[in-house]
TrEMBL record:
GO molecular function: helicase activity
Matches recorded under Pfam families: DEAD, Helicase_C, MZB, WHD_HRQ1
Protein name: DEAD/DEAH box helicase
Renumbered residue ranges of the record's region Disordered: 1-23
Domain Helicase C-terminal: 271-423
Domain Helicase ATP-binding residues, every copy: 53-230
Keywords of the record: ATP-binding, Helicase, Hydrolase, Nucleotide-binding
Gene3D superfamilies named among the record's database cross-references: P-loop containing nucleotide triphosphate hydrolases
InterPro entries: DEAD/DEAH_box_helicase_dom, Helicase_ATP-bd, Helicase_C-like, Helicase_put_actinobac, HRQ1_WHD, MZB, P-loop_NTPase
Top-rank taxon: Bacteria
Species the sequence originates in: Paractinoplanes globisporus
């Protein structure tokens, strides 16, 4: 990794090693558990582990929010296993956002060799014949919110004995529960609490989180309970070198074209190749499934050119792989058979990776919490570590590699979730009613006034029926509610000639990723989509290695439904409210691989999608724009460029990703009758991101203006105002006009 001294590095942060602080084993810790820990080389707990464990043992709800590799597992294993050993009838439940994490936790708990605990994973991969045994005999069930929601709570009568004796609920990696997913999980937890209470159980909640802005508040919103935070990390940590890396500009293909920046995927592939050649065990995090496949494929090819056969020591890992493939990759990485892995964030929360030397982060992962979670995968054995953030050609990435103070020495973001979202609350109340009639006393558990309004609306619509004993679900089947907010069942990708299932793509991404003619990558092999059958949720593909890539294009319309809040700043208005968004993928471009040359644009016939959500928007009077130097013919390009950059910079102040949000700009919107820029949450009912943007508008738009003005390009590029998901092909865009628009808005907002 000698390249770190070369030009692409914009900043190097060196974090010194830290020694740890031990605590005594609590007096209540079972001797058998202490002995098992000592056999593993754990002489005594770190101070934060002992503090969290003692609070939980006393029956206080607690969140342990410390860094990656700080040993949070022992903080909850100690009180949970102590209770299970002390009371042979007690049970415990463990929730993780990823199956891999639950499987890893099972290995850890089983490794203690404690009698009669009988830990078991209960998820979609659990064989039917094993499920009855787990319900009847396991005292420590490890699962995920999806299985709790779909499999356990609807059949709670069969879990009655387990729920009656439920002593602890562990919610691991709780910072992952954000946005719509987090809002759904908050209600799943409330449903669990309600049913446990029905059978006489009253569990203590223990949450584990990466460091976050306000872990106690986030944990309280997730559980609906008062939670105490333990945040002082007492574990030792090896020294870390953290480099910020901006890929270099390449000379333009033609004299009249602007220079383009080398892709972050190619830079990551080169760095991963160098790392594997030098024997450095390295994990490369890549934002997209397709990107992870590309990095792995390019790295394998480069390695085989250097040393034939060395490419076999690199693989890709992502969600959507079949269970058997995921488990085999995890085994190979842990055993050292693989030296390099290109992964999506499926491994950010996954298996306990010990002994990694370096982490490459291809593109800012959207939040500082995720950045540190990913970087923390290096050096977990206590040795020194290297982390490199490789910037994509994107406004936020460019801003961060030139403003290191926005990353280092700052607290991470607060986790954003909104359990009162009516598109989450209503369906979850239907789920609760289908499990057991909702009583008036239950409404406080689900949010009080919003819950009462939602129940009344559901009763009026016929989904619930009011009886003296409560509200009853009126249908025979269970409500069909998707926790992930993906808008339907995942689409299966099937090879036409063999019928082989290659993987799955979430419904929300299928129009753009699996339209007829789209190029789909799986384990480095290219396939082209023959047909997308939305009714049966299947995409049929054939293997092909085209010399072009595909890029979907869409059109969007937006109507204002209502205004929640606004700021009247004279010629500028700032608004927060509900909007209706209609979006349709209408065509796709084929672009030559390497040069990016557009070969052609082909039409598509896909249905429009409608979304009611929450948006933040600002209006500027035409006179104010002209006073700022933007003439009317340039209004569309200036507003469009400001919209793109604002979307790109929003993750700086909210726990979101630019793919979680959308936008629209217009020189004269019919509902505002003024030049307007909208930024909206890409989920029904909103996810809390627009509210955060409204609250932090000056900080958000100020950083947006600075990012555009500081970019070295002349007319606009992907580092400032171009967007990879623009449905209009990034046309028109006016970079200097965007700066003028934002300066006018900021001046008026004060």
């Amino acid at each position: 990794m000698s390249q770190l001294s070369s030009q692409p590095v914009t900043h190097v942060e060196r974090m010194p090693a830290r020694s740890g602080t031990r605590a005594e084993w609590p007096s209540w810790a079972p001797s058998s558990f202490v002995a098992a820990c000592r056999e593993r080389g754990i002489a005594a707990p770190w101070a934060h582990q002992a503090a969290a464990a003692s609070l939980a043992f006393e029956g206080k709800h607690v969140v342990l929010a410390t860094g990656t590799g700080s040993g949070k597992s022992l903080g909850y294993q100690l009180p949970v296993l102590a209770r299970l050993l002390e009371d042979p009838r007690a049970t415990a439940l463990y929730l993780a956002p990823a199956k891999a994490l639950a499987a890893d936790q099972l290995r850890s708990v089983a490794g203690f060799g404690l009698p009669d605990v009988r830990p078991a994973t209960y998820d979609g991969d659990t064989a039917r014949e094993e499920r009855d045994w787990i319900r009847q005999h396991s005292r420590f069930v490890l699962t995920n919110p999806d299985m709790l929601h779909h499999g356990m709570l609807p059949g709670h009568e069969r879990w009655a004995s387990f729920l009656r004796r439920l002593s602890y609920v562990v919610i691991d990696e709780c910072h992952a529960y954000r946005g719509v997913f987090g809002s759904h999980v908050a209600h799943v937890v409330r449903r669990l609490r309600r049913l446990a209470a029905r059978y006489g159980g009253s569990p203590t909640f223990i949450l584990a989180s990466a460091t976050s802005g306000d872990p106690a508040d986030a944990a309280s919103r997730l559980t609906g309970l008062p939670v105490t935070a333990v945040t002082e990390d007492a574990s030792p940590h090896g020294a870390m070198t953290f480099a910020l890396w901006e890929p270099p500009l390449l000379p333009p293909a033609e004299d009249d074209l602007p220079p383009v920046r080398r892709s972050a995927l190619r830079e990551t592939s080169d760095l991963l190749t160098d790392a594997v050649v030098s024997g450095t065990r390295t994990l490369a995090f890549v934002r997209s499934r397709r990107g992870a496949e590309v990095v792995a494929a390019v790295t394998r090819r480069q390695l085989d050119e250097a040393v034939p056969g060395l490419g076999d020591r690199v693989a890709a890992y992502r969600a959507g792989y079949l269970k058997e493939d995921r488990r085999e990759l995890e085994r190979q990485l842990l055993s050292g058979e693989l030296l390099g892995l290109a992964s999506t964030n499926a491994l950010e929360l996954g298996v306990d990776l010990v002994g990694l030397d370096a982490v490459l982060i291809c593109g800012y992962p959207g939040t500082r919490a995720s950045l540190w979670q990913q970087a923390g995968r290096a050096g977990r054995a206590g040795g020194s570590a290297l982390a490199v953030l490789i910037a994509r050609d994107d406004p936020l990435d460019t801003y961060l590699v030139h403003h290191p103070s926005a990353l280092f020495g700052r607290p991470v973001e607060a986790t954003v979730l909104d359990p009162a979202n009516p598109y989450v609350l209503g369906p979850q109340l239907c789920c609760a009613a289908s499990e057991s009639p909702i009583t008036a006393a239950d409404l406080d558990l689900f949010g009080g006034t919003p819950a009462k309004a939602a129940v009344d609306g559901l009763t009026e619509a016929g989904a619930l029926r009011r009886r003296p004993s409560g509200w009853y679900w009126t249908h025979t089947g269970r409500p069909d509610v998707d926790l992930r907010g993906t808008g339907g069942a995942p689409v299966s990708v099937v090879e036409s000639s063999t019928g082989r299932l290659l993987g799955t793509v979430d419904a929300g991404s299928s129009h753009a990723m699996l339209h007829t003619g789209a190029v789909y990558l799986h384990q480095g092999v290219s396939f082209v989509v023959d047909e997308l059958d939305l009714e049966d949720a299947v995409a049929l593909v054939h293997q092909e290695e085209p010399d072009w890539s595909t890029h979907a294009r869409d059109v969007t319309d937006l109507a204002v439904v209502g205004v929640r809040s606004y700021v009247d700043a004279g010629p500028v208005g700032l608004f927060l409210g509900e909007v209706d968004v209609t979006n349709q993928v209408v065509s796709y471009q084929r672009r030559r691989i390497g040069s990016g040359e557009v070969i052609d644009t082909r039409p598509l016939d896909l249905p429009a999608r409608e979304l009611r959500t929450v948006a933040v928007w600002f209006t500027v009077s035409p006179r104010a724009l002209e006073n700022a130097g933007v003439v009317p013919p340039d209004f569309p390009g200036a507003l469009h460029a400001a919209e793109h950059a604002a979307i790109g910079l929003l993750p700086l102040i909210a726990t979101c990703d630019r793919w979680d949000i959308g936008g629209l700009s217009t020189a004269n919107h019919p509902d505002t009758e003024a030049p307007t820029v909208f930024v909206y949450d890409g989920h029904p009912g909103g996810a809390g991101f627009a509210e955060r943007a409204y609250e932090k508008a000056a900080e958000w738009l100020g950083a947006t203006r600075e990012a555009i003005a500081a970019c070295a390009c002349e007319t606009g590029c992907p580092s400032c105002v171009q967007s990879p998901k623009c449905g209009n092909g990034n046309n028109p865009l006016d970079k200097s006009g965007a700066v003028s628009v934002l300066e006018a808005v900021l001046a008026a907002l004060g």
